[in-house]
From TrEMBL:
Source species: Paracoccus acridae
Span of the annotated motif Histidine triad motif: 108-112
Protein name as annotated: HIT domain-containing protein
Xref: InterPro entries: Histidine_triad_CS, Histidine_triad_HIT, HIT-like, HIT-like_sf
Superkingdom of origin: Bacteria
Residues in HIT domain copies: 10-124
Pfam family, any one: HIT
Record-linked PANTHER family: HISTIDINE TRIAD HIT PROTEIN (PTHR23089)
PROSITE patterns xrefs: HIT_1 (PS00892), HIT_2 (PS51084)
Length: 127
């Protein structure tokens, strides 16, 4: 694993209530809040409440209940933020940065939901 879980990371501190957040939604196993440095008109982070470092850690080790709850909260956020494809909305991008090559900054799994404008190509085309 690229990172060990660090209980002092900013998301762990948000989950403990030590640092405030602009909460969008919450469930039994996950929390969604606005990014403090938004990269799009809609930029929400969804994090599990469990101690998971990355997407692959969460996918491999979270319980079925945690995974379902997390995904359903993501769907609620997309709907409430008006970026899901229902009702003629135009879509969004979901990004999980993982490890050094993925430029992960916080060693707690988090999914970025970005929308409200065209996101452009995901990566520049090579060659």
């Amino acid at each position: 694993m690229a990172f060990d879980y660090d209980d002092t990371n900013i998301f762990a501190r948000i989950l403990r209530g030590e640092i405030p957040c602009d909460k969008v939604a919450e469930s039994d196993h996950a929390l969604a809040f606005r990014d403090i440095r938004p990269q799009a008109p809609v930029h929400v982070l969804v994090i599990p409440k469990g101690r998971y470092v990355s997407f692959d850690d969460f996918a491999a080790n979270a319980s079925d209940a945690e995974i379902v709850d997390f995904m359903r909260l993501c769907a609620r956020v997309c709907a409430s933020e008006g970026v899901g494809l229902d009702d003629g909305n135009q879509g969004f991008r979901a990004i999980a940065n993982t490890g050094p090559h993925g430029v992960q900054e916080v060693p707690h799994y988090h999914l970025h939901i970005l929308g409200g404008r065209v996101m452009g190509p995901m990566l520049p085309r090579q060659g």
